[in-house]
Design a protein that fits this description.
The chain is of the alpha+beta class and about 190 residues long. The chain has a domain of about 90 residues: Gcn5-related N-acetyltransferase (GNAT) (Aminopeptidase). Helices cover about 25% and strands about 35% of the residues. The protein contains five helices and twelve strands. The strands form three sheets. Strands 2-3-4-5-7-12-8 form a seven-stranded mixed sheet, with helices on both faces. A three-stranded antiparallel sheet has the order 10-9-11, with helices on one face.
């Protein structure tokens, strides 16, 4: 039974957050994947305390990616996702908004936050690998894009004769696989 206090979206004020450090700190603390790049960040505030963040990245004119949503892990936050999303759709022009759900946490592709917000199932994305280093952060997975051979060679001076896997192992990272994603689209 969850005994954390409840916060309701109807009691929250939605504001655009322009300070990236506030967004990054909140996501690092409250989202399993931590921070990400974004174009727009919206915050839900209850009694002037930040209790929810939803970020969007503009891909091209009218096309957006809802790439993070997190609420304060110390509260049961009810209706905050809907309120943040509604604010975005009413205040920012869009043709399409896409988002991806991790299949490890989204067990029912037809009944979840995305479908409640009005998103439609688009497709399944196959599993891929990430990196993990418990010495850096035991709770965060790092996207493989940051571990390309050229990048690791340039940043750490590792020889290009090594494979990506050899390089990451030498740096203390372990490769872990996800279960794939579910792509959703909102038009």
């Amino acid at each position: 039974m969850n005994t954390n206090p409840k916060i309701y979206g109807r009691k929250c004020e939605i504001r655009e957050i322009t300070n990236k450090d506030i967004v990054y700190e909140f996501l690092d603390k409250n989202h399993i994947q931590g921070r990400t790049g974004f174009t727009i960040a919206l915050g839900a505030y209850c009694q002037n305390n930040l209790v929810g963040v939803m970020t969007f990245k503009k891909e091209k004119e009218g096309y957006w990616d809802l790439n993070r949503f997190a609420t304060d892990i110390n509260h049961q936050c009810v209706g905050i996702g809907g309120k943040l999303f509604k604010y975005f759709t009413r205040n920012y022009p869009f043709i399409e908004i896409k988002s991806f759900a991790d299949r490890r946490w989204t067990t029912d592709p037809t009944n979840n936050l995305y479908t409640k917000l009005g998103f439609e199932f688009d497709s399944y994305v196959p599993p891929t690998y990430w990196y993990h280093n418990p010495k850096i952060n035991p709770y965060i997975r790092f996207h493989k894009f940051g571990f390309r051979k050229q990048h690791l060679h340039k940043q750490y001076g590792l020889p290009l004769t090594m494979t990506e896997r050899e390089m990451t192992t030498a740096l203390g990272y372990t490769r872990i696989w996800d279960c794939g994603l579910i792509k959703y689209v909102y038009e």
